[in-house]
Design a protein that fits this description.
With 239 residues, the protein is an alpha/beta fold. It has six helices and seven strands, in the order E-E-E-H-E-H-E-H-H-E-H-E-H. The two termini are 22 Å apart.
Length: 239
């Protein structure tokens, strides 16, 4: 595989039948998918995307806006769109996933077989994120909960370091909005059965973002997706 990029956590495999590109949400990086398998059914590859200003890219400047981020990601992924692929984004990660899908369609690149958005209000309702109204103590508690959900520990120093990039990510979220702009391909919208964070009426407003919008309720809470639940992986395998 040529054209490997720092935007991907690992080099994509040549033998894969299809790919699932996974977008991290605010404050964290591609390692949030460390509990996911690399392969779904042995021939669909999970490809976590790494944003700048975190983890192995911590010394790089922040991306600024979702629009600027999507331009860079679209360019970086172009060599790896030579087979069917799906975009997945949970919570705020769904927004750059949508923006990148839109950018690729506008530039004539192969479009995703499906955009899967999880627990996120559509762009025309943005900015819409409960993190935007939290102070540092509350944000630190959320980051600690995320660390535990990922199978780690809520280490104070790590939380302090993560808060810095989280503030920049939230600023990108705070300035993001877009009129309802449809995609040419299908969109799947995921709601988690025990997740109180997103109003179902807002999720329903993804209608109109494609001629083919499907809704799926999966068992679990807001961070259940971190454990790679089989119901979600089955949905992603479908492409």
């Amino acid at each position: 595989m040529t054209g490997f990029t720092r935007w991907l956590l690992r080099r994509p495999a040549n033998e894969t039948k299809a790919r699932v590109f996974c977008f991290p949400y605010s404050g964290v990086g591609a390692s949030m998918f460390n509990r996911w398998p690399r392969w779904l059914d042995g021939d669909v590859e999970v490809c976590p995307i790494q944003f700048p200003a975190r983890e192995n890219r911590i010394r790089e400047p922040h991306f600024g806006t979702y629009q600027a981020l999507s331009e860079d990601i679209a360019e970086a992924l172009a060599p790896h769109l030579d087979r069917p692929y799906t975009f997945f984004g949970h919570c705020a990660g769904a927004l750059p996933a949508y923006e990148t899908a839109l950018r690729l369609a506008e530039s004539g690149h192969p479009e995703p077989a499906r955009l899967v958005v999880s627990a996120q209000a559509p762009p025309h309702h943005c900015p819409h994120d409960r993190f935007l109204d939290l102070d540092d103590v509350q944000l630190g508690a959320e980051l600690g909960a995320i660390a535990v959900a990922r199978g780690g520990e809520a280490h104070p120093l790590l939380i302090e370091l993560t808060l810095a990039v989280l503030h920049q990510d939230l600023e990108a979220n705070r300035v993001y909005t877009r009129p309802r702009t449809p995609l040419p391909g299908p969109v799947s919208v995921v709601n988690w059965s025990a997740d109180p964070e997103v109003d179902l009426a807002l999720l329903d407003d993804w209608r109109g973002y494609s001629d083919d919008v499907q809704f799926h309720e999966l068992p679990g809470e807001h961070y259940t997706f971190l454990t790679a639940p089989p119901e979600l992986l089955t949905l992603l395998r479908k492409g």
